[in-house]
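User: Structure with magnesium ion, tokens only please.
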Amino acid sequence: MSTGELVIDDLRAGIPGREILQGISLTVRSGEVHAVMGPNGSGKSTLAHVIMGRPGYEVLGGTVTLDGIDLLALPTWQRARAGLFLAMQHPIEVPGVPLVDALASARAAVPIDGSASSTPDIMGRLHDEANRIGLDQRLLDRPLNVDLSGGERKRNETVQLAVLRPRFALLDEIDSGLDVDALADVGRRVQDATDEWGLGVLAITHFHRLLDVLVPDVVHVLAGGKVVATGGPELARAVDRTGYAGYV
Ligand code: ADP
Ligand code: MG
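Assistant:
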């Protein structure tokens, strides 16, 4: 069981000439689910990208640490190696590379379940996880995300997460494009992971429905690159009822 914390402290970041994140602080502990909500353009995806180290963004101040390790000093692959995973809002197509190959290389680079010596049966786990989440097994051999429906891409991301077993996952609208049943499958898989290996989750979402399954310990509302409200699950319900008008 993983224990640790992902600490974001006064993070300021943006693109050249524009500060998008204006001092974000939050701490996700192992096993916790933090939801990040907020209007379009408030900086939610930027937050996920900056934590993961996507090129094109610059950090202007603050820190992001995983158990004290300075993530911002590391290239993206080493952040993954430290135990971080990002499910992107718009998963990219990787022509020519099927999921099975992508995962095999990822597992080779990332210590497995925190231990480089253990070698679980990746293919077995992949098929189990695909079954568990209702992802058609035939998709596992197809090029990554090419010609997949929105829902299939999100199930696909969730399967990757479940096979790789990162310590902390950033989920950027993992629920977008999912029908009610897929939403429940994805939400439940991630929720189970918080118990199974103590996954810590930062889940960006607009919808309360995901959070009925993936139950947040803490909900943050982001507006204009700042956390403008923090609360429990009731905050997500309030946002659902009243919209963001009261927070921006
Ligand atoms: P959200 O995910 O909350 O909808 P984003 O983080 O995607 O918001 O974007 C926040 C703001 O920063 C938006 O105005 C967006 O256009 C801008 N932005 C984000 N990333 C980039 C980028 N790579 N280049 C230019 N503008 C960007
Ligand atoms: Mg976004």
